[in-house]
Amino acid sequence: MKRLRSLDFFMGTGFALIGLYVMFDGYIAYVSPALATVEKSVNPGVTTLFVGGFLALLGVVLALIGMRGAGNPFLKAAEVIPETLRKKSFLKGVLAMACIGVYFFVFWGRIPYILSTFIFLAGMMFLFKGGAWWKIGIVSGTTVAIIWYVFGVLAMIPLP
Amino acid sequence: MGFEQIFSEVLKTLNLEFILLIGMGTLIGLIVGALPGLTTTMGIALLTGITFKFSGHSAIALLMGLYVGGVSGGSLSAILIGIPGTPANASSTLDGFPLALRGQGAQAIFIARAASVIGTVFGILCLAFFTPLLTNLALKFTSAEFCLLGLFGVLISGTLTGADLPMKGWIAGIFGLTIGMIGMDELTAWHRLTFGSPELIGGVPFIPIMIGFFGIPQVVESLMSEQDVLVAVLDKTRIKIMEILRQWWVALRAGLIGVGIGIIPGVGEDVASWVSYGVAKKASKHPEEYGKGSIEGLVAAETADNSCIGGAIIPLLSLGIPGSPPAAVLLGAFLIHGVRPGPMLSFEFPAFTYQAVSWLLVATLFMFVLSVLIARPMQKILQIKNAILMPIVAVLCAIGSFSLDLRFIDIVLVFFAGLIGIVFKKGKYPPAPLVLGIILGPLVDTNFRRALKASGGDFSIFFTRPVSLALIIATVLLILGQLGVFGAIRDKWRRRKQTEAQTTIS
């Protein structure tokens, strides 16, 4: 529970900061000369100020709950972070996101879709021990073929 | 529109093309629902992208079939491998899997399926009956009511789904409202929270956000865990139909609970099935059997989560406020295909509610037949490793979001929504209020300012109309209740009574 409350402190602080930024954006709209002719009650900044304020308030309350529950959240974080970084499951999660990131931001649009998707599927299945290489090859190839046919041919979506 | 015209409109959408599409949607839903790691919400979001080019009503019919199949499909994996395919079937695992392990898997699947059919039909009948009534009521609502209804919906969704702290549900909901406000303001064309990006001027597209928020964390989480799957063998024993007929009272109660919870914005099928399971256990003559293979427990869980489908669509069609996360994504699909749910639906598409009822009934029939047919093949499919399945899901997330508007920014949004989803899961923030907040953000914002414009900036408009006042009181009571105010008042009153009693005695 202390771990969760430590995370609550940091997330609450984050939400409070987001709420403050949202309020700031709302304030800019509220006082903008470009909207001087708009009735104040209809000004787009009104709801933004309310919602941002509510978010900031809830964020602060959550941060306080987190601080009360975790004791010293910074000390708890200093204890938890190195432990988490050493966990195999965490590293697998990072690897998964990294693979997805490479597919989305490096392959997409730069390498033809069929090739990039095959490399991504085969690579990820291999990294996460999906089975023998030839099984991975067959599954990846079949999947790419089906996706290409369904999306590229039937749905007529211009694949990159 | 008269009854004959409505009937003729309904029949137009029950041709062979529609029926096959509904069947296909139900089959996809059953498979998506059965595979742990894929949820009904994700399935609807992904298929919305794929069906973008279909004609409006045919795409919606297919997605409704997927909704029905998805909610029921999860019970297959719950029974066969003890892992619920969707959160809605988590309570079915408690009794379904033990039944399968002692050689009654086929019986358990039949009971679950029959309960699903009963629940879905019950929910659909309630949908047909209550939607027109609620629509007539909603036609009397003004901007003030809609604004407060949206806000109340987000808060109550947060309260009921915030497992750790209700406040986290509220934060998720308000964060969702914030995301919903990104883009060009409808009333003044001012750009809010766009960070100078021209691609955000049109707002944050809902479907890629949903795909990223639900899909990517599931992919990552499934790949992080290594779990051996124990698959129960499907027996060939005779199905006993009387077993389900004996549970008629349990099914009826579960149906009512499911519809009731479905109507509450953003709560959904998983809460419905757990509440129904809990109520059934408390009311049971044999509560000790629950968790060990109780047919009553299985019926209560499956009936409720399926009747919730109809319940969730009631506020969706009548108020434009979805009753569950899958219904929320369905709302996005409706809007993409030019169907605007809410009170005006009865004017723009007068027969739509009844068309939806007919599609859901057809989907229910397909669900029953197809789930019996695919039970044995699914045994093999459920043994597919996550290392094989999850990369495919990641690819579908990318192509599903890209196919809507053919923009790279949508893929970027999927990635970042996925990161937010992972953080939310880690911090135990419920996803349903966020979904509802994104959907209802524009509704709350625009109606709030329209109400103020109509009243000339006077806030009393929110207090002088009876429904608005009731919603404000309900919202305040909800917040005070969760902050422990009533508990503190009750404790203080009890202490005072004790002190007075002690003073009297002495």
Task: Describe the secondary structure blueprint for this structure.
The complex is a heterodimer of chains A (160) and B (506).
Chain A (H helix, E strand, L loop, with lengths): L1 H30 L13 H26 L2 H14 L1 H20 L5 H15 L5 H22 L6
Chain B lengths: L2 H10 L3 H19 L5 H11 L5 H25 L9 H49 L4 H19 L4 H15 L2 E2 L6 E2 L13 H19 L17 H4 L2 H16 L5 H15 L11 H25 L5 H12 L8 H4 L3 H30 L4 H20 L2 H19 L4 H24 L6 H4 L1 H17 L2 H21 L1
Antiparallel strand pairs in B: 1-2
Helix pairs in contact in B: 1-15, 2-4, 2-15, 3-4, 3-8, 3-13, 3-16, 4-5, 4-12, 4-13, 4-15, 5-10, 5-12, 5-15, 6-7, 6-18, 6-20, 7-18, 8-16, 8-17, 8-18, 10-11, 10-12, 11-12, 13-18, 16-17
What does this structure look like?
The complex is a heterodimer of chains A (160) and B (506). Chain A is mainly α and 160 residues long. Chain A contains six helices and no strands. Chain A has helices at residues 2-31, 45-70, 73-86, 88-107, 113-127, 133-154. Chain A is flat, with a radius of gyration of 24 Å. The mean pLDDT of chain A is 88. Chain B is an all-alpha fold and 506 residues long. In chain B, a hairpin with a 6-residue loop joins β1 (183-184) and β2. Chain B has a two-stranded antiparallel ribbon with strand order 1-2. Chain B has two domains: 3-464, no CATH class; 465-506. Chain B has helices at 3-12, 16-34, 40-50, 56-80, 90-138, 143-161, 166-180, 206-224, 242-245, 248-263, 269-283, 295-319, 325-336, 345-348, 352-381, 386-405, 408-426, 431-454, 461-464, 466-482, 485-505, and strands at residues 183-184, 191-192. In chain B, 75% of the residues lie in helices and 1% in strands. The longest helix of chain B is centred in the first third of the chain and has 49 residues, at 90-138. Classes of the chains: A mainly alpha (160), B mainly alpha (506). Chains A and B meet through α1, α2, α4, α5 and α6 of A and α7, α8, α16, α17 and α18 of B.
